[in-house]
Amino acid sequence: MATIVFYSVNKTARIATRRCLTLHSKWLAGDSPLSSIHSPTPAFLPGARWFSRGCSVRFMSHGTAGRASAGRIRRGALALSGAAAVTAAAAVAGLLANANHFQSAEMATKVPQVAEETETEEEGDILERCRGFMASPVTDVRVLQERKDEMSTRMEMLIMETQADFCKALEKVDGGKFKVDQWQRKEGGGGISCVMQDGKVFEKAGVNVSVVFGHLTEEAAKQMRSRGKVLKGKDGKLPFCAMGVSSVIHPKNPHIPTVHFNYRYFEIEEEDGSKQWWFGGGTDLTPVYINKEDAFHFHNTLKEACDKHHPQYYPDFKKWCDRYFHIKHRGETRGIGGIFFDDLDSPNQEGVFQFVKSCARTVVPCYLPIVYKHLNDNFTDEEKDWQQVRRGRYVEFNLVYDRGVKFGLATPGSRIESILMSLPLTARWEYMHEPAKGTQEAEMLDVLRNPKEWV
């Protein structure tokens, strides 16, 4: 008889699924990967496949489905302006580059109404939640408790939880530990950079949080106005608060895709005391070899998170993602996309926050099942070489086009290590490289040159 497996990586994943599992199977015995969450959670079985379907979960038997046969050699098979500011979000300059919108970008789809998600569970005590983080929050816990109902506090708690949930899920599959690096910005705020390098599964994995504040320069305000935002400061200054969580994961196995996500919040106080705010973010996947089942799972998980708030979100933000992560000089996208949005400030703050929370809570269920599925896949030297070439394209996009990285590198006093966290440990550039027709490498390149609809 097939063994039914349910894996709850942490509180985030349980909240997303518990609503639809109240009449289903009871918890199985096991140890929680989070010391602050005491609920039985069995380990993710490498041979099991667990796909989130929004308010439904498809359980599959523990067996060999989706895995490579033993010995089989597979061939082929972060101003807040840019989602790729995943690296810059952890660095002041990078986050400002995202926050200040220093380059033109189209506005997110405006919709008259967004269904607000009604949480059945309270967000909980601030101090208790902080015990599960990778480090103490950037903002003093006492301040967070005093301002627990303010959006800046709620968003900081969300990004800290997202960082902890994702890091601990990755540590569980890799067996390694993240180096936790806290940093401060003398102008105000700071961040937490978590990096795991040369692990068993991940060659380089970074998950960063930034919470910064201070005053925008007149130039920054001017460039935001050029994007349609009318901002009036006092004595040429605009107080601001910006925060975000960002991540890039580069696995060793070429059959496990690279993943990137970034979710951020920006708030500005104008001369009359009024505030302007907006959210931005996204999640995207960069496989080395195309796997249609993986692509469907990844996109469908994001789509269902979007559909809970507005049916137009996924199609619009999916197209935006394909356009943003486009390597113009190569005529190809960086990967198979996902969702990307910016300047999202409609119809109300609570509604947009709930949407961003839904997206942030997909980062584990949209990616970890894919990692486990390919964990034991064999690969050839040729497949590893193709991965290195594709990583070269990743570097090209981040250094040539990513708005956050470009601004961060050009800003004095930037935290360079955090800005460049998104780059892989190794990469390769071959002269005039073109895969042979009919190969899986050629199939991957065709997908990158002609973005597809996966759901």
TrEMBL record:
<keyword id="KW-0350">Heme biosynthesis</keyword>
<dbReference type="GO" id="GO:0004109">
    <property type="term" value="F:coproporphyrinogen oxidase activity"/>
</dbReference>
<dbReference type="GO" id="GO:0006782">
    <property type="term" value="P:protoporphyrinogen IX biosynthetic process"/>
</dbReference>
<comment type="pathway">
    <text>Porphyrin-containing compound metabolism; protoporphyrin-IX biosynthesis; protoporphyrinogen-IX from coproporphyrinogen-III (O2 route): step 1/1.</text>
</comment>
<keyword id="KW-0472">Membrane</keyword>
<comment type="subunit">
    <text>Homodimer.</text>
</comment>
<keyword id="KW-0812">Transmembrane</keyword>
<protein>
    <recommendedName>
        <fullName>Oxygen-dependent coproporphyrinogen-III oxidase, mitochondrial</fullName>
        <ecNumber>1.3.3.3</ecNumber>
    </recommendedName>
</protein>
<keyword id="KW-1133">Transmembrane helix</keyword>
<dbReference type="InterPro" id="IPR001260">
    <property type="entry name" value="Coprogen_oxidase_aer"/>
</dbReference>
<dbReference type="GO" id="GO:0005737">
    <property type="term" value="C:cytoplasm"/>
</dbReference>
<keyword id="KW-0627">Porphyrin biosynthesis</keyword>
<dbReference type="InterPro" id="IPR036406">
    <property type="entry name" value="Coprogen_oxidase_aer_sf"/>
</dbReference>
<feature type="transmembrane region" description="Helical">
    <location>
        <begin position="77"/>
        <end position="97"/>
    </location>
</feature>
<dbReference type="InterPro" id="IPR018375">
    <property type="entry name" value="Coprogen_oxidase_CS"/>
</dbReference>
<comment type="similarity">
    <text>Belongs to the aerobic coproporphyrinogen-III oxidase family.</text>
</comment>
<dbReference type="Pfam" id="PF01218">
    <property type="entry name" value="Coprogen_oxidas"/>
</dbReference>
<keyword id="KW-0560">Oxidoreductase</keyword>
